[in-house]
């Protein structure tokens, strides 16, 4: 099997679309489509279920993913042994601000430990949507993002769930309109919270929406609003609202995604090992109430 065709196949799997894959690997969509067609002819089996939206893997496509990752990892590691690349530049990593405190320290520690060297990180905090754009344009090597629904994007770091949170003064729950402070419109909790409250007939006063987790936590702490955020992002001095009067918030998968053209030290095997480390650490917490 052609390595570049396998690379295109994985780019589609990791990004969830032919369009984003084409942007990441700097090819046209027609060129990628031809590569996938040749792979399907070679394997005598379709790799994607083209009748479903969003794009979904066929059974053969699911089987090919692990083989493709191993083949590309072996190929790239063999090339790296004969190439001299700049491994001293910082690893550029992106992370939504709400995950930064809970996940980034452990992630950076894990990367350094695996590489066994004093690597520097250039960290950008932004929404998942903007981080994907930076990955596609080659401005990031790695990004922590919320996985899109029904997608195989990236390597899993953590299963999490949205929760409603407030400060010490719980009387805020009975104010109408209900004061809210939410993450920006690209956040899964933003639309779910507003839609859910609207269906319950609860009028809201949207104080702010922002990409800054520290801003939301400060407003909630001050008693100016309630908010919706990932359970793992919850600081100790805020409390989960569990009175059942508010709409449920969705479960999410937090994943790490690598750019197609990335830092030479960021190999598929490195990212896979980090994923397994986080999953193993998280196993006792998977059943979130």
Automatic annotation (TrEMBL):
Record organism: Enterovibrio nigricans DSM 22720
Family, similarity comment: Belongs to the LysR transcriptional regulatory family.
Keywords annotated in UniProt: DNA-binding, Transcription, Transcription regulation
Protein name, entry field: DNA-binding transcriptional regulator, LysR family
Pfam name, any one: HTH_1
Source organism superkingdom: Bacteria
PROSITE patterns membership: HTH_LYSR (PS50931)
UniProt domain HTH lysR-type: residue ranges: 1-58
GO function term, MF aspect, one: DNA-binding transcription factor activity
Record-linked InterPro entries: LTTR, LysR_HTH_N, LysR_subst-bd, WH-like_DNA-bd_sf, WH_DNA-bd_sf
